[in-house]
Amino acid sequence: VRWPGGCFADEYHWKDGIGPHENRKEMINTHWGGVVENNHFGTHEFFEFCRQVGCEPYLAGNLGSGTIQEMSEWVEYMTFMGKSPMTRLRAENGREEPWKLKYFGIGNENWGCGGRMTAEHYANEYLRYNTYCRDYGDNRLYRIACGPRGHNYHWTKVLMEKALHFMDGLALHYYSRLKDTSQLHAMADGNTQYTRRPNAESFSATQFDSNQWYLAMKAAYRMEELVSKHSAIMDHYDPDKKVALVVDEWGTWFAVEPGTNPGFLYQQNTLRDALVAGIHLNLFNNHADRVRMANIAQMVNVLQAIILTEGEKMVLTPTYHVFDMYKVHQDAALLNTALVCDNYSSGEGDGLPKISASASRDKAGTINITLCNIDPEDKASVRCVVDTLPGTAKVTGTVLTAGAMNVHNTFDAPNAIAPTDFNGFTHSGDTLTVDLPAKSVVLISVTQ
């Protein structure tokens, strides 16, 4: 889990978020809502949250408006176990022992809200700041550089040329939007600067037609192009794939729910978002040789969230259910797949692959196949030939679908869409035939 994420990261000063709550400095969150941030959730609270939910912490350091000393002292505060001013300060705030911290990002979106830097300028700054983010004791930082926004291949090329041997990961950000609301400013040196206007997004998260459904699928499939092209540049400089492509912001971006603060980016989540999530997770899995981390941008109440809350009420979104279905791929071995399928189109262009797929084998030997049928009207029959599949294999399935494209869960109807058992398949010899319903995400598990 990455924190503090987004444009807030390069305005966040970590010392404002430690010590007694009543003494913490308040600030205005100028990027998201213009509200007062009381800094009651800071470094100690984040590590405690990670402990409670059992996740690996990923910190984003402030390169845009912070100093080298500030970032260096934060790493020392978190990970040094000797005696120093920072460890004494940590102890005063209730923590004697250092935390274990692996993932550390040096800046966020420094091409945009993190400073509007050119690739060359950021690469130089990255090397400076990185020098003072030290490894203390047996704690080894996995250093992640700010990477490109979308198709800015020049940024990737420059970072790989200048900083290859000083980073472990390069971050890529891309959102699936129906209309790009960014203003792009081309510069003479080939860089592109971005000024994002998220409040200008005008497409509803729940009220849409089949053409807008198609455009959302098209935007999701573009991630395949981006990952492939950025990976090709990285392969040129790093054929051994030592540096990971870290896709640490992705997801859909639609209009906020009526009556909510536009800066909070609170949007609903439908079956359409579930298909977008399925496409992304399949392609990330298929590119596991280079993509070794991929964080959906928000978890709760923002953009394509997996959980929505209102006071003490909570609802799980269709995206949550896709994540739950796809967790079978975690810590499994990727299987080679070859997919041939028809295209689906709404009249826009040449169409998109109707089926998205990925497969893996877990440690117990079970083969898990995740499939998406992005066509909202027609089913699809998929024939899977699985090498070395015994006739005695047990096959089970789970499906996420609904009767309408925009079905979503609400606090009054929290289970309007949820996974159900799926038996739309036949198994003969080494061949599985799966009949995918329209607009569906399906998990097939084969236990040998």
Write a structural description.
The chain contains eight helices and 24 strands. It is an alpha/beta fold and 448 residues long. Strand 22 and strand 23 form a beta hairpin.
Mean pLDDT: 93
Strand order of the largest sheet: 1-4-5-6-7-10-11
CA-based gyration radius: 23 Å
What is the 3D form?
globular
Uncertain runs with pLDDT below 50, 5 residues or more? 180-200
- Give the beta-strand count: 24
Number of helices: 8
Helix content: 10-25%
Chain-wise SSE layout:
Blueprint: E1 2-3, E2 27-29, E3 35-37, H1 43-53, E4 58-61, H2 68-79, H3 85-92, E5 103-106, H4 119-131, E6 142-145, H5 153-163, E7 169-176, E8 183-186, E9 192-195, H6 210-237, E10 244-252, H7 271-286, E11 291-296, E12 307-310, E13 313-316, H8 318-326, E14 333-334, E15 343-344, E16 352-353, E17 355-361, E18 367-373, E19 380-385, E20 394-400, E21 420-421, E22 425-428, E23 431-436, E24 440-447
Parallel strand pairs: 1-4, 4-5, 5-6, 6-7, 7-10, 10-11
Antiparallel strand pairs: 2-3, 8-9, 12-13, 14-17, 15-16, 17-18, 18-24, 19-23, 20-21, 20-24, 22-23
Write a compact overview of the structure shown:
The protein has about 450 residues and is an alpha/beta fold. The chain has helices spanning about 45-55, 70-80, 85-90, 120-130, 155-165, 210-235, 270-285, 320-325; strands at about 1-5, 25-30, 35, 60, 105, 140-145, 170-175, 185, 190-195, 245-250, 290-295, 305-310, 315, 335, 345, 350-355, 355-360, 365-375, 380-385, 395-400, 420, 425-430, 430-435, 440-445. Helix content is about 25%, strand content about 25%.
